[in-house]
Design goal:
With about 200 residues, this protein is mostly helical. The chain is built from 7 helices and no strands. It starts with 10 loop residues before the first helix and ends with a helix.
């Protein structure tokens, strides 16, 4: 059986796939295997993936929830609040060496926060969105999320706007600066780069 084409996926499929990739990275980090350099690279990839994912949700998914769900504003604000907590933790984690005991403390807080967030989204928000929003719109949102993730920041910016239109205006600029910093410092921000380093 062949896997579905991208056009067959809706935004819930795309975001759920992101959740699985992030969980796999968490499990690898929690195993405490590998060199400190490898753990740093894994943490950098987790941070970049989470930031891109969160920015895309804040740009497109939460506004759709606000519009489509009777309590959409409350749901969106709750999810954004969880993103803010995770982003502050990621900002701290970014500056801690993997050999420092704080690294695993911060990682533990981040994994706990994100796992709770994923449970909220997959158990409540995503099924409700699928019930309330036309499939065509959900597929269109998948494309918008994928595009947003390409231009999104790769580093946490806890003070950055997290609501449209400000986040849509400022996010790509922050993303460009982050990608330039990543290139200059050799920071790993994707699974493909991580696999390349492992060769």
């Amino acid at each position: 059986m062949t896997s579905p084409s991208y056009a067959d996926q809706d935004v819930v499929d795309v975001l759920t796939a992101d959740h699985r990739e992030i969980e796999a990275l968490f499990v690898e980090l929690e195993s405490r295997q590998g060199t400190p350099e490898h753990r740093r690279q894994l943490a950098d990839v987790v941070i970049a993936e989470l930031v891109r994912h969160a920015v895309a949700e804040e740009m497109y998914v939460y506004p759709a929830a606000r519009k489509a769900l009777p309590d959409g504003r409350k749901v969106a604000e709750h999810e954004i609040s969880e993103h803010s907590d995770a982003e502050r933790t990621m900002k701290d984690l970014e500056g801690v060496d993997p050999s420092d005991p704080r690294f695993d403390e911060l990682l533990g807080h981040l994994t706990s926060t994100i796992r709770h967030h994923v449970q909220d989204e997959e158990g409540d928000l995503f099924p409700r969105l699928r019930a309330a929003v036309a499939r065509e719109e959900l597929v269109e949102l998948a494309g918008k999320v994928a595009t947003a993730k390409k231009a999104a920041p790769t580093r946490p910016h806890p003070a950055a706007p997290d609501h449209p239109p400000a986040n849509k205006l400022l996010g790509p600029g922050a993303g460009l600066v982050d990608r330039m910093r990543d290139a200059l410092t050799g920071r790993t921000t994707s699974m493909a780069e991580l696999r390349e380093h492992q060769r």
